[in-house]
Specification:
This is 1-alkyl-2-acetylglycerophosphocholine esterase. It holds the Pfam family PAF-AH_p_II. It is a single chain. By secondary structure, the chain is of the alpha/beta class. 31% of the residues lie in helices and 20% in strands. It has a single domain, classed as Alpha/Beta hydrolase fold, catalytic domain (Rossmann fold).
């Protein structure tokens, strides 16, 4: 991708970029981070990637204190250049973003900490189409700081560029401006779902945990995702009973995820107010089917709209725009809604945190999970289903 002349003329200013931190996680733990490349062939892979691997990033709780030599960078230079062009932010400013992640920090050792992580479900995340999973680092770090092990999946060749660990060359993918046909979206959904299912197979993540003698939970999972990633999580949930709950972040349902049967497992779906402009049918039909199933099996579903939001607002991107200066006399080329990045960040962390707390058997936050609250007026409830066969619209 070319660098616009206006951007190139400002590149010398990159030397002045100062470090900018993402919002700090609020949980009792610090956050460790590692990555693993799994071998898995995608038949007829439509991307320009190799088609025989996927990348898993692992966020996990640690007691280790962050240090300058362990901090994981947010952006690699290639991705910073590509995404900086879209949002009119200097690449050096994007590279100045700092995470609180610690590369391969020590695991927990205290018995009470280990017992918690062993019993809480491992959460598996799939990002929006064409996006790197790391662009939800703020949310994923927050969940890990609370005590969850979080796995984030990347399919090399789908995002414009994916940096790979351990000296492997990065993978150039589709152009960031490439249009997506309905047929291609279904193909993306299918290989994303296949990647997630392969990760949960015995020779995937469970084998990696056993090989490293870790205590992470390999028996129960929660699946969640943004956009196409949410459909992949839903389709995987339909096929694997070990996925005990799902969270759909503004994701249309594609392919066979449209007909997913969850048999009462908890499911949270949240959308931007323009969601129906591109997906008018799948969510109402899904909620109705879930309600009918709840008459037979216990069920729990929430469906909300975040007023003032936009599709990409459910990621870290609004934080980039809020925290970093834009090139003078320019504006971002993508609508991020009217809710600030920090507000959306806090909102998503609050509701996902309450949901997974409920799923793991912790405190049920009825104030947040059962209807509108004064603290979050942006969140409007569209529907809910409960285990006694009741529904509200």
């Amino acid at each position: 991708m070319h660098v616009p002349n206006a951007l190139a003329s400002l590149l010398p200013l990159s030397l002045l970029a100062a470090a900018v931190k993402l919002p700090a996680p609020s949980g009792p733990y610090n956050v460790g981070f590692t990555q693993h490349i799994f071998n898995h062939t995608t038949p007829n892979d439509p991307t320009p990637g190799p088609g025989n691997i996927y990348l898993t990033s692992i966020y996990y709780p640690t007691r280790a204190t962050p240090g300058p030599n362990t901090s994981v960078p947010y952006f690699d230079p290639t991705s910073a250049r590509i995404w900086g062009e879209v949002f009119n932010i200097l690449p050096a400013d994007l590279e100045s973003l700092e995470t609180t992640l610690q590369w391969q920090a020590p695991l927990l050792t205290a018995e009470e900490d280990v017992d918690k992580v062993k019993t809480w479900p491992t959460l598996v995340f799939s990002p929006g189409g064409g996006m790197n999973a790391g662009y939800s680092t703020s949310l994923l770090s927050e969940l890990a700081s609370q005590g969850y092990t979080v796995l984030a999946l990347d399919h090399p060749g789908e995002a414009p560029y994916l940096s790979l660990p351990y000296g492997n060359p990065g993978v150039v993918g589709w152009d960031i401006y490439m249009p997506y046909s309905d047929e291609l979206i279904v193909e993306i959904y299918e290989f994303r779902r296949a990647d997630m299912l392969a990760l949960l197979c015995p020779n995937g993540y469970p084998a990696l945990v056993e090989l490293n003698g870790a205590y992470f939970n390999t028996e129960a999972y929660g699946a969640f995702g943004h956009s196409t990633g949410a459909a992949a999580a839903t389709g995987a949930m339909d096929r694997r009973d070990s996925i005990v709950a799902g969270f759909n972040i503004d994701g249309g349902l594609f392919g066979d995820s449209v007909n997913a049967s969850l048999h009462g497992r908890p499911y949270f779906m949240t959308m931007n107010p323009n969601h129906f402009a591109q997906d008018a049918d799948t969510w109402p039909a899904f909620a109705e089917r879930y309600y009918n199933e709840s008459k037979i099996a216990p069920g729990w579903l929430d469906w909300t709209t975040v007023e003032g939001s936009a599709h990409l607002a459910f990621s870290d991107i609004p934080l980039w725009v809020e925290l970093l200066p834009q090139i003078p006399n320019s504006t971002a080329q993508v609508n991020l809604g009217n809710v600030t990045g920090s507000r959306m960040d806090a909102l998503l962390k609050t509701y996902t945190g309450a949901f997974w707390e409920f799923v793991r058997g912790g405190q049920y936050n009825a104030t947040l999970l059962d209807g509108e609250v004064e603290e979050w007026p942006e969140v409007v409830f569209d529907a809910k289903v409960r285990s006694n066969g009741t529904q509200g619209y």
